Amino acid sequence: MQLLTLSDLKLGLTDLLDKRKPALLRSSSGKTYEPILAKKLEEISALPPAAIGGKALAAELEETDVEHDSLGGAVWYLTEAYLRHPQVSPEITAAATRIRRAFIPALSELKASYADEARAAIERKKILKQHKADLERFPTADGETLHDWVSAFLDAGERLHSILSDRADVKETSRKGAGALRAATIGLLSRLRAGIADETEHNPKLPPDLDTQVFGYLDELHAPRAAAAKAKKAKRTVPASATPPKPATPPAPLSPSDPPEIA
């Protein structure tokens, strides 16, 4: 359960202390931990909404920035193709130029700070409508147009602003407190699970599937987190067979005294 977020814990504890409470109270461990977990649920529920989002704000900010930068790069390179083509009509070239100047003048803009990217998106969204005709001149392979791409690019930039605003709502002390609360709650659940396992092993009156009855929903919440973490780790791991061979060492240049080779 180590990957559960505060949002997961809020859902899981609500379920555990309501629907699964009879199963929880069948064990001595459950009776001991029930009021402690109820208190933790109260503490989690009292946190600011931004502190218990399903994803850490820092991670959400990074993912949104990657989306923003990828969309911006796509727009830039598509217009670049038309601007480089030697036989594109002057009208299309002019439209591509106007789009470039309005929305993504340079790739270097995609390396700006989150705040600068958000500010640019908010300002550029104001002129999206006036460039609609130019943008719709450029269809994309998925049946959309460059208008859809630019709209998504600007939406991602606006989300950066929203996430930055949410982070400002959560003071540093609150963020640290939320992290400590999450860790403490997961620790309690782990100890409860170990206690129930011991009781089930030595008390034949308890059902053998009591663990599932108590922790079934929490396990369901944890499963996609674990799968995503495993996939991410696998993606970062490069197999040895995929390592490109080292280039062959080039022959040493001939010295003036070396005889030339004869074919």
Provide a descriptive summary of the structure in words.
- The protein has 263 residues and is an all-alpha fold.
- 66% of the residues lie in helices and 0% in strands.
- It has ten helices and no strands.
- It has helices spanning 6-16, 21-24, 28-45, 57-84, 90-103, 114-125, 132-135, 146-169, 172-202, 210-236.
- The longest helix has 31 residues, at 172-202.
- Mean pLDDT is 87; it is low at 240-244 and 251-263.
Note the main attributes of this structure.
disordered C terminus; 263 residues; mainly alpha
Taking all residues together, what is the mean pLDDT? 87
Structural category: mainly alpha
Main sheet makeup? none
Distance between the termini: 71 Å
Give the helix tally. Answer: 10
Helix content: 55-70%
Radius of gyration: 29 Å
